[in-house]
TrEMBL record:
Domain of life per record: Bacteria
Protein name, as recorded: DUF3159 domain-containing protein
Transmembrane segments: 45-63, 70-87, 107-128, 149-169, 181-201
UniProt KW keywords: Membrane, Transmembrane, Transmembrane helix
A family per Pfam: DUF3159
Organism: Amycolatopsis carbonis
InterPro entries: UCP010219 (IPR016566)
């Protein structure tokens, strides 16, 4: 039951956002594949096209007010991926960095749950200004732990798909998968993890805010 005195719960999707960044990140890999195909499977030209597109996107993101650090990191990832492919002489290795980063992310999220510092809680806590105070609320800590497993699954899906395609040298399929498993998968992960998080919370809990945190109306809790 809800009434006018029940605080509205914030949407996890509203807090995390990230659609533009996920979409932008999938464009340079597609540009690499297009450049690679258009030039007779030339890794050098594929790399040049991918980096060029990344520079254009980065410039556009800076103009629209995105943080310079995020733009530099995105551009650096494309450059590193291109250098790996150029060094090995294998076009599929352009996607090796993504494969490894998703494997590392899966391990980090899983480890954070085991040590009771679920990364989803850490990220959301920083975004909404809670820092680490959410850990004082046992219900919220438990809910973040359950919801973080959804993020582990997201990264494992990418590892399996990218890994199989990379192993088979399927460059075009890797470009398609890189797009399909960017924002659509992120959106699904945010939606499902938000549902899991709120299902794990007891009735009447304020959601992403701490149930045990003092409020202006009810004073300190014990």
């Amino acid at each position: 039951m809800t009434d006018e005195t029940t605080p509205s719960r914030e949407s996890l999707a509203q807090i995390l956002g990230g659609r533009r960044g996920a979409i932008d990140a999938s464009i340079p890999p597609v540009a690499f594949v297009v450049g690679w195909l258009a030039t007779g499977q030339s890794i050098s030209w594929g790399a040049i096209v991918a980096i060029g597109v990344a520079v254009v996107l980065g410039t556009y993101r800076l103009i629209r007010g995105d943080k310079a650090r995020a733009v530099v990191v995105s551009l650096a990832a494309v450059v590193i991926a291109a250098l790996i492919a150029l060094h090995t002489g294998r076009a599929e290795d352009f996607f090796l960095l993504q494969l490894l980063s998703n494997a590392a992310s899966a391990l980090l999220f899983a480890a954070s749950i085991v040590v009771r510092w679920p990364l989803l809680g850490v990220i959301v806590g920083l975004l909404i200004g809670q820092k680490t105070r959410w850990r004082r609320d046992p219900a919220l800590l438990r809910a973040y732990s359950w919801a973080s497993w959804v993020w582990v699954l997201q990264y494992l899906i990418r590892v399996v798909v990218y890994g199989l395609l990379w192993w088979g040298g399927q460059v075009v399929a890797l470009g398609i998968a890189r797009t399909a498993l960017s924002w659509p998968l992120v959106a699904a992960t945010v939606a499902v993890s938000g549902w899991v998080l709120y299902k794990a919370l007891p009735a009447g809990h304020p959601g992403l805010r701490l149930a045990s945190e003092p409020g202006p109306e009810n004073g300190p809790r014990t």
